[in-house]
Design goal:
This protein is mainly α and 211 residues long. The chain contains 8 helices and 4 strands, in the order αββααβααβααα. The longest helix has 33 residues.
């Protein structure tokens, strides 16, 4: 990571924490009051093929023992009503601002994978994780809706894992590597801008869908 990219991450993260801190406090209180504790969902993710970190999100699902893998269709019944709203607006990811400040993540980069996927696809992630994981990225913008559609059709753990490993990981990796070859601060800012537009678009669609 270049000094300019790291400086941008720190400055932008501090600005967003100052602006959005009150909203984060309100969300935390709502989760505690409506869905109970824990307020946060903590997940081990990989910063490099052999270095893990703890990713923070607001909890959006009911907790179960031995949960594993991506959020396939069979898990959707565990998403709470409040969690569905947070996911639709990506507000559940606001705690990742702390990960950005710590240097675990950047604002733009490949999404941080679970250890099991790094171990099952070592050649892919040896290339992808040369860049620091991000909150958003080219693969997130281009492929996320397709990934959601594919995984939503999976009605058990096995089909979800097969679909994710064979159809999602390779395609997202190609997009992540395209971004890596052309990465610049200007390109990153463009991706952040389009992410914000996408979030507001999904928020509007969610409201219209609810009538």
């Amino acid at each position: 990571m270049t000094p300019a990219k790291r400086a941008f991450d720190i400055g932008f993260a501090l600005l967003l924490i100052l602006l959005l801190g009150p909203i984060m406090i309100v969300i935390a209180l709502l989760i505690a009051l409506i869905d109970g504790r824990p307020v946060f969902y903590l997940s081990e993710r990989m910063k490099s093929p052999d270095t893990a970190f703890c990713l923070w999100k607001f909890r959006t699902m009911r907790m179960v023992e031995n949960d594993a893998g991506v959020s396939s269709g069979y898990k959707q019944k565990r998403v709470t009503a409040l969690g569905r709203r947070l996911r639709a607006t990506r507000l559940d990811e606001l705690p990742q601002l702390l990960n950005v400040l710590r240097g675990d993540m950047s604002f733009v980069g490949p999404r941080p994978p679970l250890r099991c996927y790094v171990e099952s696809c070592p050649d892919i992630y040896a290339k992808v994780l040369k860049k620091r994981p991000g909150v958003t990225g080219l693969a997130t913008l281009v492929y996320h809706r397709t990934e959601e559609r594919l995984l939503s059709a999976c009605d058990n753990h096995e089909s979800g894992e097969t679909t994710y490993v064979t159809r999602c990981i390779p395609r997202k990796a190609r997009l992540d590597l395209i971004w890596a070859r052309h990465q610049s601060l200007c390109f990153d800012i463009r991706l952040i801008y389009h992410t914000v537009i996408r979030v507001f678009s999904r928020r509007r669609s969610y409201r219209l869908g609810r009538g």
